[in-house]
Amino acid sequence: MLQCTMKDPPRFVKGVGDSFRAAANTLGNRRRLDLKRHLSISNHAANYNDDSLSATFHALANPTRRAIPARLAESEAKMGALAEPFAMSLPAISKHLKVLENAGLIRHTVDGRVHHRRPAPEPLDDATGWIRERREFWQKTFNQLAR
Predict the structure, then answer these.
(1) Helix crossing, 90-102 with 63-74: angle to 10°?
(2) Is 79:93 a contact under the CB 8 Å cutoff?
(3) Beta bridge partners of residue 117, listed in sequence order
(4) With bands split at pLDDT 50, 70 and 90, how would you rate the model's confidence at 114?
(5) Which residues, including other chains, have CB under 8 Å from residue 120's CB and lie 6 or more apart?
(6) Which residues are within 8 A (CB) of 41 and not within 5 positions of it... i.e. 6 or more apart?
(7) Which residues on neighbouring strands pair with residue 119, listed in sequence order?
(8) CA–CA separation, 19 vs 83, rounded Å?
C-alpha cells in the first residue's frame, strides 16, 4: 500500500489518479452498501416479528425447494434420488435441503449412516394462518371500497 506524508505529497500521473478515485469510490460504495444492509436488517427486525415465517416463505420461494417436500411426502429418498429429477449436483441439493431444514419444513434424523428426511407441516400451518389473516383484511377493505 502506498503511504505518503505531508513532506511527500502524492504525484499525479496520468491514469494513476483515475484508479485512485475508482478505488476510493469503491470503498465509499462499500460503506454505503454496509449502511443499506444495516438499515435493511433494522427494517427487517422492525417489520417482521416472526423469523420462522420469513424463513418459511424464503424456503418456498424457490421451485426446487417447493418440490422437495412434495417428493418426500410420497416416501423417504436418499439425496441422490432427490437430486435426480432436478439435474442438480449433490452439493446443490444439500444446500436446498439445509434451507428447508432451517425453515423447519423438513425433519432430518440420522440412524447410523442412513439419513432420514421427512416433511414437517407445522411451518406451513403458520404460513397458512398468516395468509388467511391478510386475505380477510384485504377482502374487507375491497368490499368497503366497492360500496
Answers:
(1) 80
(2) yes
(3) 108
(4) confident
(5) 104, 105, 106, 107
(6) none
(7) 106
(8) 46
